[in-house]
């Protein structure tokens, strides 16, 4: 499995003053918590029941516990996207973390609220829907300890000369909501066919050497924004390219995750 949502968590103060933290999918969420709060001191993550991990946090301030609670609450409302088994032979750790607002569909015939916004913004160029998406994306950034501190927020680039590319608009509007500069001199050197219709190996070959970067990203952390994450091939390929050019951390944030993890194989 490569997409996760935190269904529940416990954050309770013990009689000793330490704080118990417990949640399911411990291998996924313990790593996220440690990355978001590297200065928290705890006894180490320990198994409780199957896939459930817990720890006790020691010496934390009330502000640190409040921030941890807000972060865990955020993780209940967004998806965590990890490398799926179809890409394991091609990628490893190029993308540090990736998140989605929601799935695009509730079932085969019904869009989620976010999925409907993404559809209208992308295919009907609905400005109001695009603004709502950007506001939600910006809200995740502002609430996430790692994403809030990135050096750069950039769109996954579209084909050269493309008249309308939703990620560009989303990043521009996110900058307005977050009151910060956005964008990166990042582009494709050539047009690529609609990648979702290509077999996986052909898609990876198509993306080979397609990205061009004219900014210095040495040692920087970058947040890549896209509208749809299917297998993640584009996001992972671009993350690899940015790290080859010196980026320290690369995160991803997308509007929707498709139900399928695979491209055509």
Describe, in short, the structure shown.
With 265 residues, the protein is an alpha+beta fold.
Can you describe what's shown?
With 265 residues, this protein is an alpha+beta fold. The chain folds into two domains: 3-77, Alpha-Beta Plaits (2-Layer Sandwich); 85-257, Rossmann fold (3-Layer(aba) Sandwich). The protein is built from seven helices and 15 strands. It has helices at 26-36, 62-75, 113-123, 127-143, 166-178, 200-207, 233-244; strands at residues 3-4, 10-13, 19-23, 41-42, 46-47, 53-58, 79-81, 97-103, 105-107, 110-111, 152-155, 186-188, 211-213, 221-229, 249-257. A six-stranded mixed beta sheet has the order 1-7-8-15-14-11. Strands 2, 3, 4, 5 and 6 form a five-stranded antiparallel beta sheet that branches. Strand 5 (46-47) and strand 6 (53-58) form a beta hairpin. The model has no long low-confidence stretch (mean pLDDT 95).
CATH fold topology of the largest domain: Rossmann fold
Strand content: 15-25%
The name of the CATH architecture of the largest domain is: 3-Layer(aba) Sandwich
Structural shape: globular
User: In DSSP terms, counting alpha (H) and pi (I) runs of 4 or more, how many helices?
Assistant: 7
* Estimated radius of gyration: 19 Å
| Residues in helix, % | 25-40%
Count the beta strands: 15
| Biggest sheet details | 6 strands, mixed
N-to-C series of helices and strands = EEEHEEEHEEEEHHEHEHEEHE
Strand order of the biggest β-sheet = 1-7-8-15-14-11
Task: State the secondary-structure class.
Answer: alpha+beta
Low-confidence stretches: none
Task: Estimate nothing, just give the exact number of structural domains.
Answer: 2
């Amino acid at each position: 499995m490569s997409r996760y949502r935190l269904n529940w968590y416990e954050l309770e103060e013990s009689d000793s003053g330490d704080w118990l933290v417990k949640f399911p999918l411990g291998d996924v969420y313990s790593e996220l918590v440690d990355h978001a709060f590297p200065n928290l001191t705890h006894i180490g993550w320990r198994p409780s029941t199957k896939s459930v991990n817990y720890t006790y946090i020691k010496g934390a301030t009330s502000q640190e516990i409040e921030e941890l609670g807000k972060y865990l609450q955020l993780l209940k409302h967004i998806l965590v996207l990890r490398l799926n088994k179809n890409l394991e032979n091609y990628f490893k750790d190029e993308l540090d973390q990736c998140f989605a607002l929601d799935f695009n569909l509730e079932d085969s015939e019904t869009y989620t609220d976010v999925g409907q916004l993404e559809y209208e913004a992308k295919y009907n160029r609905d400005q109001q829907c695009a603004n709502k998406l950007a506001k939600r994306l910006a809200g995740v950034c502002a609430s996430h300890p790692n994403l809030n501190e990135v050096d750069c927020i950039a769109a996954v680039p579209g084909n050269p000369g493309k008249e309308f590319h939703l990620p560009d608009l989303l990043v521009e509007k996110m900058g307005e909501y977050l009151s910060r500069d956005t964008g990166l001199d990042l582009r494709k050197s050539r047009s690529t066919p609609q990648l979702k219709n290509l077999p996986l190996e052909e898609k990876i070959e198509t993306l080979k050497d397609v990205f061009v970067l004219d900014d210095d990203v040495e040692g920087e952390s970058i947040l890549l924004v896209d509208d749809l994450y299917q297998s993640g091939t584009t996001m992972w390929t671009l993350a690899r390219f940015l790290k080859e050019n010196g980026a320290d951390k690369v995160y991803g944030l997308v509007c929707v995750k498709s139900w399928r993890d695979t491209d055509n194989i």
